[in-house]
Amino acid sequence: MNSIVTQSLGKTFKSLGKPSVHSLVDLNLTIEENEVFGFLGRNGAGKTTTIKLLTGLIKPTSGTASLFGVDTRSPEARKMVGYLPEQPYFYEYLTPKETIEFYGRLRGLSTGERKETWDRISELLDLRDISDRRIRGFSKGMRQRVGFAVALVGDPPLLILDEPMSGLDPLGRRMIRELILRLRDDGKTIFFSSHVLSDVEEICGRVGILVSGKLAACDRITTLVGNVPKSVEVCATGLTDADCESLGDVVLQCQVRKEGGHRIVVKDVESANTIAMKINQMGGTLISMDPAQESLEDFFTRIQDVSNITIPTDKVAASIAAAEE
Amino acid sequence: MNRIIAVAENTFRESIRDKVLYVLLFFAATTILGSKVLGWISIGQDVKIIKDICLASMSVFGALIAIFVGASLVYKEIDKKTLYTILAQPLYRYEFVLGKYLGLLGILGVSIIVMTAVSSVYLRLMGGAIELIWFEAVLLIYWKLVLITGFAILMSAIVSPIMGAIIVFCLYVLGHATEVLKNLPPQFDGTFSKQILEVMYFVVPNLNTFNLQSEAANSVSVAGAYVGFALLYGLAWTATFLILACMAFEGKDV
User: Which among B148, B159, B13, B7 has a CA at the least distance from the CA of B75?
Assistant: First the structure.
């Protein structure tokens, strides 16, 4: 069963005397079980709006969203999701232990289940040392750990995390990364938004990119960026600067290497082959030819510039099948 | 029901740590104990005056707690974003509203019990008698606060705490002056103002229904049926306010 399905999901905010803001337009998304899905977009692209729609905090103006087949507007759907907001705020006068106790009660857990939950979560997130300290004096990292702990109360199969690494130091980010991977190994589905693209590349199977409230791309990272070499770097010796200049318009960049020879950057493999032949004709020696792959960051930047976005069909089934093969 | 109780207990715990509560309780205690001063002025009427002022203090300071704490109850959760993680749990929004409401009623209940205890002991020390009407008067004051809190939580779900506090305060004042709205002087005849004020007579609860201060001060008993009517009257208004609060909060984007 799919963890998340949205169909033509949209949200428009209206306020008196101001133009309507279309925060999310026609979002069609399918997230399979046990997937780690990265949800990307610039500030104001509609990521948090989507997450709020999925967690029932706001209601859609069009379309539907469901979690494991249950409409997100129903409290039943929220039994299956753990949510970490962008900046988690809790009652400052409570300790982490009391906080987990409170959320356990909201989830209808029995006394025994709440104790078991605390034991499990406090160990996983290393909360024991701060279990009886009030949240009021907590650092950002400590609050994030408590936030994660709250998301895990009730052992929900789906975790929705809004910017879980935002504002954390490198160790904190690493801890969250490792935790996400561990939870994936435990069978959970993780849907998270982030601006830290290197982390997304490291832990996500698929990503979706929102641009101005529309889903501009949604697929495996390798599918989105893997088959498009950004450029090809050709290294050769025995050439003069004049030779490099005569190589033509296909050359994007030509530099003298510290180690000797020249480093020539061309836009694609075809151009690199042409250059290689020319180098040979000029009496030079080809040392290496390396295609530079486009990174997720390159793709992300490129897609922001595309003015006419065509919303792609979600290719989840095909890409997952391809991965399994 | 367990979820409502969890929210209520948490609200109680939150309010008990709210400094406003203690400031108001301090002033209430000071006023109660200071009632002796007015008793001296009215020769031979000490006990009557003390009773009157004690009940008035409970009414006013209880209302201030209901207004200042109640009007920010839901809004504060939105403003501080604590609501995000709570509403993302499998609970209905009405459960949250009722939990907050019951938590505040708990605080008001404790406050009234404390004020009643202080007043009763003080009254006994001053040689006054504690009769059934005294407790009936206290019960109806609490019931009035139940109603006002219901309205405060409705405002809290709609407007900012300051605006909410002003509106609830207006209701408190108007609710004690409904007779004035009904019996306007002749110069209002035929004016638009009269029409407006007459409509207000029907849409503002008559808070004097809960006022047994004079009877308690003069040790005059009232029929049990009247107390029963007042309780039902308050319940009807409170239920209306709570239903509206739940409806307003149900459709709210947070």
Answer: B159
* Cα angle: A60, vertex A66, A69; to 5 degrees: 155
Counting residues of chain B whose pLDDT is more than 90, the rounded percentage is 37
Report CA A56 to chain centroid distance, whole Å.
Answer: 21
Interface of B with A (CB under 8 A): 2-3, 5-7, 10, 13-14, 17, 80-82, 84-92, 251, 253-254
β-strand partners of B252: none
Amino acid at B40: W
B176: three-class secondary structure by DSSP = coil
Q: What pLDDT, on the 0 to 100 scale, is given for residue B14?
A: 82
How many Å apart are CA B104 and CA B13, to the nearest integer? 10
- Quick one: pLDDT at residue A306? 62
CA distance A43 to A63: 23
CB neighbours of A213 closer than 8 A, spacing ≥ 6?
A22, A23, A24, A25, A45, A46, A49
Say if residues A303 and A209 touch (Cβ distance below 8 Å). Answer: yes
CB contact under 8 A, B92 and A78: no
What is the C-alpha separation between A196 and A178, in angstroms, rounded? 15
Q: Does A83 contact B88 at a Cβ distance shorter than 8 Å? A: yes
Q: Tell whether the model's pLDDT for residue A271 goes beyond 90.
A: no
In angstroms, rounded to a whole number, what is the distance separating the alpha carbons of residues B33 and B30? 5
What is the torsion angle, in degrees rounded to the nearest 10, for the CA atoms of residue B235, residue B238, residue B240 and residue B244?
-160
Q: What angle do CA B249, B253, B254 make, to 5 degrees?
A: 95
Identify all chain B residues contacting A91, using CB atoms and an 8 Å cutoff. 10, 14, 82
Digit-coded pLDDT (tens) for B166-211? 999 999 998 988 888 777 777 777 788 778 877 888 888 999 999 9
Strand order in the sheet with A229-237: A251-256, A262-266, A229-237, A285-293
Report the complex ipTM.
0.82
DSSP B63-124: HHHHHHHHTTHHHHHHHTTHHHHHHTSS--HHHHHHHHHHHHHHHHHHHHHHHHHHHHHHHH
Is residue A9's pLDDT more than 90? yes
In angstroms, the separation between the Cα of residue A156 and the nearest Cα of chain B is: 11
pTM of the model: 0.81
Please provide the distance, in angstroms rounded to a whole number, between the alpha carbons at the two ends of chain B.
23
Residues 6 or more apart in contact with residue B158 via CB below 8 angstroms: B164, B248
CB contact (8 A) between residue A108 and residue B2:
yes
Which one, of B99, B108, B65, B105, lies nearest residue B246 by Cα? B99
Q: What is residue A113's predicted lDDT score, i.e. its pLDDT? A: 93
